[in-house]
Design brief:
Helices cover 12% and strands 36% of the residues. By secondary structure, it is mainly beta. The strands form 5 sheets. Strands 1, 4, 5, 6 and 10 form a 5-stranded mixed sheet that branches. Strands 3-2-7-9-11 form a 5-stranded antiparallel sheet. A 5-stranded mixed sheet has the order 15-13-17-18-20.
Length: 366
């Protein structure tokens, strides 16, 4: 009898315990997560030299490759008045080359009626169902990028992202890197990557991305009278910026003491068709001398070395400095504060090409 009583008491205790577990609040339960929806992203890059950027984005020439990687940064706020803490989310995707389609641009940016490449593959990011004040920063590249901060937590940290031109692949494909300039307003008063309909049920964003590297368009001509003994065998852009290059602030790089010790060269070997008359674009990170520099604040120098058949020692050649006064250009073209410059200049050799050790020359280019 006593045994039956103990069994009954234990059964009642278990019933009460189970009831408490069911009716009480769970211990350490995770907070409900907000519902999320997919927002489609449309990205476009220039396809021709006609794109109306000041003084002109070089576009995607036949020597460039279509990007195969995309880096997206979404910044949004969960408070209705925008006073809450911004949330940053990063998305990386591999692009399908066949999904790039060439078309005529029609939209609100200044590329109206210009040819562009638009990515038509499925590209989207997951966003909370309730959100406010959305902005997207985007970059596309052919070569992989390693940025300075893999987990930015504020919009300013996204704007300040830098990368090093540290791999041969990136050096060779620097012209295939595009991004959304942080200070481009488009036709409005806000950053052009702001999502106007972000709080609606069907948000989307359509972005035009622009070159991160400046184009140095080198043209050379060896006069007929000096051609037999003066063949250009190699053209090189030397001493190029390599460290801490801005991804979303491409016109705000400065040459620092670190750059004095860490830089790289880019080479172009001529052939029989270009040894006397030729043209080659070098894509380089744009930069300018800081205040107080001996070469002048706001100026950008790119050294271009011409090596001839008479110069057999590596590194020898005649150097021409392409100098761009960015400060002056910005005064004439306010858009230069946003878009990278396009430096074009022709070097005419009308006498024997000087040998190494000559003082070289400087040409001012636009």
């Amino acid at each position: 009898m006593r045994s039956d009583t103990l069994l009954y008491i234990r059964a009642c205790a278990m019933t009460l315990l189970l009831a408490a577990c069911v009716s009480g609040d769970p211990i350490d339960a995770p907070e409900p997560q907000p519902q999320r929806i997919d927002m489609p992203i449309s990205i476009t890059i220039p396809a021709s030299d006609a794109l109306t950027r000041a003084p002109g984005d070089p576009g995607l020439s036949t020597s460039l490759m279509l990007p195969r990687l995309v880096y997206l940064y979404l910044i949004y706020n969960l408070s209705t008045d925008g006073t809450g803490t911004d949330i940053v989310e990063k998305y990386n995707y591999v692009l399908t080359p066949e999904k790039w389609v060439k078309e005529t641009y029609s939209g609100s940016l200044r590329a109206e009626d210009d040819e562009v490449w638009r990515y038509t593959g499925n590209l989207s990011i997951s966003i909370p169902e309730t959100r406010y004040n959305g902005r997207v920063y985007a970059a596309v590249s052919y070569a992989p990028l390693t940025v300075s901060n893999d987990s930015p937590t504020t919009e300013q940290e996204v704007k300040d992202l830098t990368f090093d031109v540290s791999t041969t692949e990136l050096q060779q494909h620097l012209g295939d890197l595009y991004s959304t300039p942080y200070n481009y307003l488009g036709t409005g008063t806000k950053y052009y990557g702001t999502i106007a309909n972000f709080a609606s049920k069907v948000p989307s964003v359509d972005l035009m991305l622009y070159h991160v590297a400046a184009k140095v368009d080198v043209i050379w001509n060896v006069a007929d009278g000096v051609q037999p003994g003066n063949r250009i065998t190699q053209v090189a852009a030397t001493g190029l910026k390599q460290r801490a290059c801005y991804l979303f602030r491409p016109t705000e790089n400065e040459w620092t003491t670190d750059d004095d010790g860490t830089h790289y060269d880019s080479y172009f070997a001529t052939d029989p068709g270009t040894q006397w008359l030729g043209r080659h674009p070098f894509y380089v990170i744009p930069w300018q001398y800081p205040a107080g520099h001996v070469n002048g604040e706001g100026k950008m120098d790119v050294s271009v070395r011409f090596r001839t058949n008479n110069q057999h020692t590596a590194g020898y050649g005649y150097t021409v400095t392409y100098r761009n006064d960015l400060a002056a250009q910005k005064a004439l073209h306010p858009d230069m504060l946003i878009f990278v410059p396009w430096l074009r200049g022709q070097v005419n050799f009308t006498t024997d090409i000087p040998t190494a050790g000559s003082p070289g020359m400087t040409i001012d280019v636009q």
